[in-house]
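1st attempt posting a full record on here, be nice pls
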Amino acid sequence: MKKYWLLLILALLLVTALPAGAQDPNATISWPTPAYVLNGQVEITGTANVPNMTGYFLEYRLLPDDLSEPGEDVVWFPATLFSAAPVLNSTLGVWDTTIIADGLYELRLTVSLMDGSFIYHVVKPLRIENAAAEIPAVVTPGGIGPGVITPGGIGPGVTMPSVATPDSGAAGAAGISAAQIVFVSRRDGNPEIYAMNTGAGSVSRLTNDTAGDYAPAWSPDGTQIVFQSQRGGNDDIYIMNADGSFVSNLTNNPAWDTGPAWSPDGMQIAFASYRDGNGEIYLMNSDGSSVTRLTNSPTDDFAPTWAPDGTQIAYFTETASGSDIAVIDIASGEARVLTSGGVNYDPAWSPDGAQIAYVAEIDGQADIFLIDPNGGSPRNLTNHFANDITPAWSADGSQIVFASDRNTVLDLFLIDASGGNVRNLAAYSAMDWAPAWKP
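the predicted structure (as tokens):
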């Protein structure tokens, strides 16, 4: 107990002695304050209201007992899901401290901006003290860095349901039909692109760069993958072979380029870009040539997805109070809005062209909905108290793969397109999201 109070006193001295550094008053954690003792479900309050903000999330990592700076191999773990809604002196999220081991931690607010940069606000040290019962230690698949043993396997002390991981062949054993899915994961620290063979239950890393790699999408013939990366200093659109070889930059533009989608005939790639001042949907040839702007909206447009006949593109467009799903005819440039109000994003067009899957946030909960591209009433497909995001269709249109935090951290799940039969595709200790099903 004497050591505990000594650490808190030392922490307060460190906090008051260190220079404050540049802080953006529009990106702050107001509570908890440094050297606070926390337990249970902790409501984190503050502000995330930065101009040109795309969203924010909270994350945490373990501090050494001597309160020195953690090494580069100490991974940040998500405390909350990504949120696009601005917050002003209110609740940023709820941190469930009961699922991590007692100890000293730092908490970070990460705000992402439209130009691909980030703003951080860190509060440390914070002591978690739930006095939880001791849990037998197990080695997680892949660990949290080389040779790390954690109680339960999701960062320090997090327990998971007893679901086998894809690395152990669980997907094949669970009766999931063989397929290849690429997705984004932080299982090796920073966001990288991985490929999963659901039949064999194997996972392999395709990219390996110190910068973040995001938003993978298959070419129609399944031989190449287009993706978004920050490896050139800002977000550009890159292309690589399906095995991760021969990576090349397609856009190489100082503006933020994001969310690529390959046309059904393989000739073009749609993406969102800020090269004309705000977020618009652009088209380019699959070799990066002949870039043309498709949308021309006063607000931001993101996340294009092609109709299977190649004549239309669905996307989400920001509104004064949120965002809506819209469809634009490529030949005429005429656009129509499918949803009405609220926060709607991440559209994905079904292979038969009859439905668009997308995410809608209702009362702070994200679910996957289906809607007719010609309009009509949307249908809630997942309807779960957790957050379900980034839907992607199977090649035959019978299933949808998506990311969900129903196991605390974002994992990949499958659901029948008709609804029901939900199963965990990848239970892992790090965030997995943005899946794309091989054609």
